[in-house]
Amino acid sequence: MTIAEREREMQAVAEEVTGCTLCELSRSRNHAVPGEGNIQARVMLIGEGPGWHEDQQGRPFVGNAGKFLNELLTKAGLQRDDVFITNVVKCRPPGNRDPLPDEIQACSGYLERQMNAIDPDVVVTLGRFSMAKYFPGERISRIHGQAKTIGTRLVVPMYHPAAALHQAALRSAIEDDFAKLPKLLAEVDRVREAASEQDTPPDQLELF
Fold this sequence. Notes:
The chain is built from 10 helices and 6 strands, in the order ααββααβαβααββααα. The chain is an alpha/beta fold. It has a 6-stranded mixed sheet, with helices on both faces.
């Protein structure tokens, strides 16, 4: 996609999400939260769902978990403006309960369109519900921080920043996982360069 095409598609998704009534979450929301960030981002972060602060402002990760996420990005040499941030569900589940399977399914088309428009090199799943999209049946405690090549992208499951706020023991783990992002991006570049030299499609080379 050209930049103009990306902009049009991302704007279209945002407008559709804002008026979406595909599931029951639309009845209780204040604001839908399509996501925000760089539409040419190399890193896309996918959380679980908006919380109270996000529902009030219509923006992802603006509460305490968002502040911690900003710190994590900074330590990885990134800023919010460098990445794109969204969730598997675009409206807040009442009482911050877990999103239900039908709610995740209702939003899945929006997420796929965002993914296709941005075409990130690295996808970071934050929490077990976004992890399950790529690693069904896995436990986040077992595979967090372990990158896997899926299609042409690296997908890295990580703990949700909110988990570290509630369980201090997880803080160092998520900090260590985020610290791997520069290396992962460099590895993507290395593979692309090798593919170019060998005249081999990048998706035929294994990253890990």
